Amino acid sequence: MSAPSDISSVWEELARAGGRIVYLVLDGAGGLRDGANGKTALEMARTPNLDRVMRDSACGLLELVGPGITPGSGPGHLALFGYDPLRFRLGRGVLSALGIGFDLREGDVAARINFATVDGEGRVTDRRAGRISSETNRRLCDRLRNAVRLDFDGEWFLETVAEHRAVLVLRGANLAGDIQDTDPQATGVPPREPVALSAAARPTAELAHAFIGQARDALAGEKSANAVLLRGFHRHAPLPTLQARFGLKGLCIAQYPMYRGLSRLLGLDVAAPPEGLDAAFGLLAERFGDGHDFYFLHVKGTDKHGEDGNMQGKVAVIEAVDRLLPGLLDLQPDVLVVTADHSTPAVMAAHSWHPVPVLIRAASARADGIGHFDEYACRGGGLGLRPGLHLMGLALAHAGRLNKFGA
Q1: pLDDT tens-digit profile of 242-273?
Q2: Which architecture, in CATH terms, is 8-88+240-398?
Q3: Which of 335, 402, 390, 388 is nearest to 57 (CA)?
Q4: For 375-407, how does the pLDDT look when each residue is reduced to its tens digit (9 = 90+)?
Q5: Strands, E, within 91-136: which ranges?
Q6: Please, where are the H alpha helices in 112-183?
Q7: Which CATH number fits domain 96-235: 3.30.70, 3.40.50, 1.10.1060, 1.10.620?
Q8: CA-to-CA distance for 356 and 364, rounded, in angstroms?
């Protein structure tokens, strides 16, 4: 008999009650060695606590989506949570809307907005408008709500997310989300057009085009945030939850709205956004053992500094996590997973396709005895190189949460 195309459906059949699992996800932690130091940020970081955990863990590398495919944060996290990202496709707009607690309804189309800077020739010079403040963002959203008029039989909403990020939601009949991003993901070039990728999406693409044009006129006097880039168009539809699939009652601890949105979509409870790493780890300690059996602790700073090309900043975040790790270990989770949702090498200042390191610490883990947690050391671990989708099955098994398969 051939193996099933979606192994996660077998985990659903085998799921049972068991131990508690903690996912510590260092967003974008994977990297490449740079020319100046000859090391990645993980290799450079002084991590005595993580090294101690590593020696008692099984480790390896995860390929989140597939060979050569650079994952966005949404697909990367879906894979980590046991959802095939090629089957369950999500747009960043939906995740951003859910992340700020917006009352997103089935059939709504959402798109993530970046306030951006364009020059006199219409070329993008800064995709994040200098990372404007959330206060400035709210002011600009108020201006656009007053200035933009969309002619369709429905409603539209514009909400601040944080810093340069906002979200546009279209609500009405016969909307579609298969529309090309307008964010070119590069500078020195003009924004792309919101091209419909199907006939059904043409009316929605026309609405996006009208919004962009009117927004450009309304923002013309701004020094930095004088344009909008749209990405991650998606028509909202519910997903099966982690509890329904694997019997996991989860809790998300994350500061950034997108990861909170993904967690809500998968049925996790979402804690109030922590103010910094210390608060995040403290919140985990406070909530541990409160009826949840799956805890997702998200660290954004590694990705943010990677995208900015700031190697030292990325190292500093990793070392800060290491200093807080003993408090997590004191909770004695049955399974501790440390990994990333994608690589963001500081030398590339962007997401990349490179596999990410992973460790699994549990009483039943076959410890590899490797002494440092990084991309190159993890190549020698017993988990090998495997699809990111496999991680949830391994976490469930190490937590004693899967029955035997077959007679």
Answers
A1: 999 999 999 999 998 889 989 998 999 999 99
A2: 3-Layer(aba) Sandwich (3.40)
A3: 335
A4: 999 999 999 999 999 999 999 999 999 999 987
A5: 109-118, 124-126
A6: 134-147
A7: 3.30.70
A8: 23
